[in-house]
Design goal:
The complex is a heterodimer of chains A (295) and B (165).
Chain A lengths: L6 E3 L4 H11 L3 E4 L5 H6 L7 E4 L9 E3 L3 E5 L4 H6 L1 H6 L1 H7 L5 H4 L4 H7 L5 H8 L3 E6 L2 E6 H4 E3 L2 E2 L6 E8 L5 E8 L9 E10 L2 E10 L8 E2 L1 H4 L13 H7 L10 H32 L1
Parallel strand pairs in A: 1-3, 2-3
Antiparallel strand pairs in A: 4-5, 5-10, 6-7, 6-10, 8-9, 11-12, 12-13, 13-14
Chain B lengths: L8 E8 L2 E8 L4 H8 L18 E4 L2 E4 L5 H4 L3 E3 L12 H8 L9 H14 L5 H7 L11 H17 L1
Parallel strand pairs in B: 1-5
Antiparallel strand pairs in B: 1-2, 3-4, 3-5
Helix pairs in contact in B: 3-6
Classes of the chains: A alpha+beta (295), B alpha+beta (165).
């Protein structure tokens, strides 16, 4: 349960970090918060010869809120983003989901960008990046590039980041005004990996649903989004039957069985959580548009 | 497979319980092992070594973190508080005193992680409800007392702290 030896690199700038990553290639791993990486190293599931520790790189620890996005730097800890009032006001879904990311002691150290770069479909924040239509900002030897979420997540724990690229930030676009959101997950113990989780965004205009989208945790191979608008469009959220979305949801899911749950149970749970979050997001949309018109 | 890497030694200085402490350690030295092996502070206990059990929880700049999921070199220039920094047998901190009064421990293996976690929690939440107290300790595992007395200890520690302030 100890990591194998590695060479520790502590660059001070993004350029230095990228240069080291370029030199060490596939033998290198980026260390930010380490809350996913260090367990893997401790269990020797991986033994990279070089760790590029970016914790001393300056300029990566900011949360920036603009009219369009919440931009999160690569050294922002989950706890920092969770506590950020400006980010919460701009995109309440971030805090709603972050509260489910492991335990507070893990959130104090783990970074949001790191969990997205880890690309675990059992992680909450990859699902949120997908649902909000987010973008990863990467810097490599050829300069900076932006990777939309759907081009970023390629497979289980696999992204389109090159070995010599560093993810320096992610941008979560703010959803259109009067779009409501909700997040829910179930685990045996709060803070453990979810058996299943769901995030929903719903827009209600003139008393009817105009848009409804979902993203899931722990029941797909790759973080993704399913648009269920066509199943419920034009209906009043009062007494709506959200199970009209079930065919679309089931087509989207690919749950696996493990010691905690069968695939059938995960499908049932994810579907129920979808109903729950869709209803909550619809109420949130109505409440936010009522608040908006009053202001 | 890449060639094995020769072990490189680094000078690491960490402020532990208000005292700067130095050791020359390999980069892969976990903070938990740095505290125990290099500094001889064996109050921090090592359970699962992958972040699940919470036994090794210490405070880094006042915030609880898993010492097994952090390298000593990453703690450089930070202030670490361990169980040894939270009281002595003659002058126990409020959380330690509450654990004693409420039978919050039995074998004591998990206790340092609980005490550090609860100490930091009560700084932010001085008057928790029973449900909040239970939630506050959800990241720490205990395999002998069960959690009833630990929840009681959280509430009692809040009382002791309030009375003392």
């Amino acid at each position: 349960m100890k990591p194998a030896p590695f060479v520790h690199h502590a660059p001070r700038t993004v350029e230095e970090a990228v240069a080291v990553l370029g030199r060490v290639g596939h033998d290198g791993k980026v260390l930010a918060g380490g809350q996913s990486l260090i367990p893997i190293l401790n269990m020797r599931l991986a033994s990279p010869a070089h760790l590029v520790d970016i914790n001393r790189v300056t300029g990566l620890d900011a949360v920036t809120v603009t009219d369009e996005v919440v931009r999160v730097g690569a050294l922002v800890r989950h706890a920092g983003l969770e506590a950020h009032e400006g980010a919460y006001a701009a995109s309440p879904l971030l805090r709603r989901a972050l509260r489910h990311v492991a335990h507070p002691a893990i959130r104090n150290r783990g970074t949001t960008v790191g969990s997205i770069a880890h690309a675990d479909a059992a992680g909450e924040m990859p699902a949120i990046l997908a649902l909000t239509g987010g973008v990863v900002e990467a810097v490599g030897p050829a300069g900076a590039r932006e990777i939309p979420w759907h081009d970023f997540f390629l497979g289980a724990l696999e992204t389109s980041l090159e070995p010599d690229e560093l993810a320096v930030a992610v941008r979560f676009p703010r959803l259109p005004a009067a779009t409501g959101t909700a997040f829910a997950e179930r685990a045996r113990r709060h803070g453990d990996y979810a058996i299943a989780g769901a995030a929903a965004s719903v827009a209600v205009a003139d008393g009817v649903v105009t848009s409804a989208r979902l993203s899931f945790v722990s029941v797909t191979e790759v973080p993704g989004v399913v648009d269920v608008t066509e199943a419920v469009q034009g209906q009043s959220p009062e007494g709506i039957d959200w199970s009209l979305c079930d065919d679309l949801i089931r087509d989207h899911l690919s749950p696996e069985a493990d010691i905690h749950a069968t695939a059938e149970y995960r499908t049932m749970l994810a579907t129920r959580l979808a109903h729950l979050t869709l209803a909550e997001a619809a109420s949130d949309s109505i409440a936010s548009s009522a608040g908006g018109s009053a202001a | 497979m890449s060639e094995p890497v020769p072990e490189e030694l680094l000078d690491v200085t960490v402020t532990v319980n208000d005292v700067p402490r130095h050791a020359r350690v390999p980069a892969r030295r976990l903070l938990s092992d740095f505290l125990r092996h290099d500094l001889g502070l064996t109050g921090t206990h090592v359970g699962c070594e992958h972040g699940v059990c919470g036994a090794c929880t210490v405070l880094v700049d006042g915030a609880p973190v898993r010492a097994c999921l952090m390298f000593a070199v990453s703690a450089q220039a930070h202030a670490v508080t361990t169980i040894e920094g939270l009281g002595t047998i003659d002058a126990m901190g409020p959380v330690q005193q509450a654990f004693t009064e409420c039978h919050g421990l039995q074998c004591g293996f998990c206790t340092p992680g609980f005490v550090t976690t609860i100490t930091a929690y009560l700084e932010e939440n001085p008057d928790p409800t029973q449900d909040e107290a239970r939630e506050a300790i959800s990241g720490n595992l205990c395999r002998c007392t069960g959690y009833q007395n630990i929840v009681k200890s959280v509430l009692r520690a809040a009382e002791i702290k309030a009375a003392g302030s």
